[in-house]
Amino acid sequence: MSPSSNKPGAAEKPGADLSGYAGIRSVLRITPFRRLWIVLGAASFGDWFGLLATSVFAAAQVEGSTAKGAAFGGVIAIRLLPALVLGPIAGVLADRFDRRWTMVICDVLRFLLFASIPLVALLGAPGGVVVGWAAIATFLIESLTLLWIPAKEAAVPNLIPRARLEAANQLTLITTYGLTPVLAALILAALDGIVRAATGGSTPDWAEPAQLALWFNAFSRLATALVVAYGIKEISQGQSDERERTEQSMLRQFKEGWRYIGQTPLVRGLVLGIFGAFAGGGIVIGTAKFFATSLGAGDAAFYLLFGAIFIGLALGIGLGPMIVKDMSRRRWFGMSIVLASASVMALAFAIHLSMAMVGAILVGAGAGMAFLSGTTLLGGEIADEVRGRVFAVVQIGTRLVLILAIGLSSLLAGVGGSRRLELADLGVSISSTRLLLLAAGAAGIFAGVSAFGQMDDKKGVPVLADLWGSIRGRPLMPAEPFVSAGLFVVFEGGEGAGKSTQLTVLAERLRGQGRDVVVTREPGATAVGERIRSLLLGAPGSDVPSPRAEALLYAADRAHHVATVVRPALVQGAVVISDRYVDSSLAYQGAGRTLPVDEVSWLSSWATGGLKPDLVVLLDVDPRTGLSRVAARAEAADHVEAESVAFHERVRYAFLDLAAADPKRYLVLDASRPVEEIAEQVARRVEEMLGAPGGIVHPRPAQGPDTSVQPELSESELVTMEHRT
Ligand SMILES: Nc1ncnc2c1ncn2[C@@H]1O[C@H](COP(=O)(O)OP(=O)(O)OP(=O)(O)O)[C@@H](O)[C@H]1O
Ligand SMILES: Cc1cn([C@H]2C[C@H](O)[C@@H](COP(=O)(O)O)O2)c(=O)[nH]c1=O
């Protein structure tokens, strides 16, 4: 039996592989997230399609180029206005009301409003009325969007395990800002061509591509409402109960949200950094036309620079996590802002289009990485009950900062004249545009450094060495050189899964075949290990080590065990069968006790000199079944066995995560099956490996943490853990 794939932490690819393609595949296996992503993709396509279509549609209703320009720009401007009006309450509503129903009601209303725009035209209203209604409907739609986005953003972290949040954000950002706008523009253009060709230029009103796009936009919203209402009920489940949410007045919730943002260094740093990045981005956009002119590269340069920023964004979001690997996300966020801002400054010194293109790509890459890490930190580190308000402040603040930065910088760049200064043979143009870029870059660097200072979770660790270490994979120690001539098999699983039973059957079978077999276990296989075991596994209520001390003691037992039992036996060519090994520490101390899993993994890698088992047999069983087997042994339970079922469930899911991350090295078996059936499957796999024609291919020694399986805890469990430790 395997657990539901909806369960956060279920068998999916974790750890170092959680970004990039593998990470994206793993989040798509989580059913509620997959459904949400599909409808959001369709809705985002519909929104871009609708934005382009409403603007084109409004422009088509009036005559004359000035009126057309005003209608086109007016509709887009109206989309930004509601932020000013509704901004303050949007987040409070997302935190106060059930997020699923907030999303559903907003989407049903948006469906009606989108559909009303072409309907008014079809009913024969005059052009002015149609444009007027398009503007009003757009304003209302955008107001609803302001309520919908914080509800959605705050709900997503409740649907996916924290370790997969970054991959989920990668996927969502690429879909929303990369794939769907490009697709929408292409399809709108293609539709326009097809319809006009088919109708010979005299297209009936209802078949106008702009009208069809609006209908699509309307129905994509209806589809989102239906899927969220009936297919993603989990969105409601993540929230605290209704009484808690509605106990306080809205005004109090509003003030509390601001107090939380102002007084929490992480959130303050994030908000400051995000606003700084958007201000810098706005100045680049506002000055881009003048900058392109100052390069003397013509109009096309403007579009090239714009394209370069988008390419950089995509590279930053898509490749960033793979490059920085397990670097602290808080540090990565601050560094990304500094990279984007320093690149804006570098643009000020560009004297050739090629230099400006490189600068623009780096601006985009820095901004993309900051956007991804910032959203992930917001989703993963902010308590559910205030998340909506924080997302609303970020969403509204970024819009305002962007509009102000674009408006002011284009005004200043336009007002300032260009001066030419001759430096040796180089003609360097010093203009107000370049000065603005310099100032924007400096302000951005200041924001990035301040954010970094407020959020740093590795104070005292030199920044560049830390970055370089992460990029290289941070080898803690060279793996110990040794050549295994044997086979290293480990049995893993929860309490009472049947490890000792299976290990004994396998050992007897192999011995019966004349093989040299060493049976061992952790903790306690050696005399030193026995003493460590007695320190570790006392009765509940006895003097048990604290979580970090526990992790160190298991690592100490392991170091001695590997050095004195496992490696010597493998060098001799024996089949070494161990009852538990490194994965037990990752599952129990990492997921169970909630110590950072990558740190526990480092500890084990160091203890073992990187030695990995050739095969891990994972006996998977519901903890209730395993614990009842243990209870039937009529021995007193130790303090680990006496832990809650939730603790043992986390352990179980962590084991499954590890197996899913490296399926070739794992044999996962349903441990509720009869003993003989399991034993047969184990023997078949081990005999296959022993008889492999080319000999056993040993896994390469671990060079870094093998995983970052994150413990999945409910808020109430976290509070309990905090009190206990
Ligand atoms: N497949 C099975 N079906 C039913 N009972 C089993 C099965 N395998 C083992 N058992 C029984 O369950 C109990 C626990 O088995 P065992 O000691 O092998 O598990 P374990 O995983 O080594 O436990 P622990 O985690 O305490 O070391 C024993 O009484 C054993 O006989
Ligand atoms: C190796 C290892 C073990 N544990 C825990 C898991 C079990 O509760 C006990 C060992 O008991 P068993 O009957 O011998 O299976 O120790 C752990 O928490 N961390 C580890 O690394």
UniProtKB/TrEMBL annotation:
Keywords: ATP-binding, Cell membrane, Kinase, Membrane, Nucleotide biosynthesis, Nucleotide-binding, Transferase, Transmembrane, Transmembrane helix, Transport
Entry binding sites for ATP: G493, G494, E495, G496, A497, G498, K499, S500
Keyword Protein transport: no
GO terms under biological process: dTDP biosynthetic process; dTTP biosynthetic process; dUDP biosynthetic process
Thymidylate kinase-like domain location: 491-681
EC numbers for this chain: 2.7.4.9
Chain residue ranges for the region called Disordered: 693-725
Superkingdom as given in the UniProt entry: Bacteria
InterPro entries: MFS_trans_sf, P-loop_NTPase, Thymidylate_kin-like_dom, Thymidylate_kin_CS, Thymidylate_kinase, TM_effector
GO MF annotations in UniProt: ATP binding; dTMP kinase activity
One cellular-component annotation, GO: cytosol
UniProt-listed Pfam families: MFS_3, Thymidylate_kin
Annotated signal peptide: none
Residue stretches spanning the membrane: 36-58, 70-94, 101-124, 130-150, 171-191, 211-232, 269-288, 300-320, 332-351, 357-378, 390-415, 435-453
Catalytic reactions of this protein: dTMP + ATP = dTDP + ADP
The protein's role, per its UniProt record: Phosphorylation of dTMP to form dTDP in both de novo and salvage pathways of dTTP synthesis.
HAMAP family: Thymidylate_kinase
NCBIfam families (UniProt xref): DTMP_kinase
Protein name per the record: Thymidylate kinase
Organism (species): Micromonospora citrea
Gene that this sequence comes from: tmk
